[in-house]
Amino acid sequence: MSVLLLDLDETLYPRGAGVLERTDARIVAWIQRRLGIPREEADRLRHELFHAHGTTLRGLVLRHGLDPGDYLEAVYGCDHSDLLRPDPELRALLARLPQRKVVFTNAPRRHAEHVLDLLALGDVLHDVIALEDLALVPKPDPTAYATALARVAATPAACTFVDDTHANVLGAARAGMRAVWVAHGRPRPDHTAASETADPDPEHHVIDALHELETLLAR
User: Fold this and answer.
1) Under the phi-then-psi rule, with left for phi > 0, alpha for psi from -120 to 50, and beta for the rest, what region is 135?
2) CATH number of the structural domain spanning residue 29
3) Which residues, 6+ apart, have CB-to-CB distance to 217 below 8 Å?
4) What is the bridge-based pairing of β-strands 127-129 and 159-163?
5) What is the distance of C-alpha 5 from the center of its chain?
């Protein structure tokens, strides 16, 4: 495996650090102001658009024709230095891994670079594939994986994909990558409960924290 495609939020740092909760609150506040709707309706819309389109932003662009520029500034133009700190053990682990390491995130580049700076990981990673590079088409859309593979100039078989979102991991596995779910102790979602004809999940690996990745890759 020559390339590691690593998700950013709650993959390179622990789940529940508060970054995504802060981001969600800013999204709701922006929708309230921009669409002039109550907070409860704005939060419901955020959930609906996220689950239908992969990101709330893409849903707002497709359904409401909104310019993403103001959204990105309002939602992601904030500091998370009170929430994130460097993890020397993780930094050392990533530095030891011989693969080319690329962050592959549904977040915008501004956010990704800020988080990597706070985690002190920027110089042990080789590239960042952010939402702008995906033309706002996020994981787990197959187009996002195709874009990432073209960016790193590698075949799916040469890539290991690591993410804390199960749907994104399944998408990567279906694209032919070695896929790893960072579960943080969560059980695998039961996709067969909704439909008896649902396709079985493609083969993928499960770890509870990114610190387990080195051992997994060595097997």
Assistant:
1) left
2) 1.10.150.450
3) 1, 97, 99, 160
4) unpaired
5) 10
By the 8 A CB rule, do 80 and 115 touch? yes
Same domain, 63 and 101: no
pLDDT digits (tens, 9 = 90+) for 66-116: 889 899 999 999 999 999 999 999 999 999 999 999 999 999 999 999 999
Closest CA to 104 of 17, 184, 169: 169
Q: Give the whole-angstrom CA distance, residue 199 versus residue 33.
A: 41
- C-alpha torsion angle, residues 120, 72, 159, 154 (rounded to 10): -110
Residues 109 and 210 in one domain: yes
Q: From 32, 53, 76, give the residue that closes a domain.
A: 76
Distance of CA 27 to the CA centre of its chain: 17
Asked whether residue 10 falls in the same domain as residue 48, the answer is no
Per-residue pLDDT at 194: 47
C-alpha distances (whole Å) from 163 to each of 4, 77, 78, 125, 208 are 11, 24, 24, 16, 11
Which residue(s) pair with 163 in the sheet?
181
Question: Most distant CA pair in the chain: distance in Å?
Answer: 54
Quote the domain boundaries for residue 196: 3-14+84-218
Kindly report the CATH number assigned to the domain that includes residue 92: 3.40.50.1000
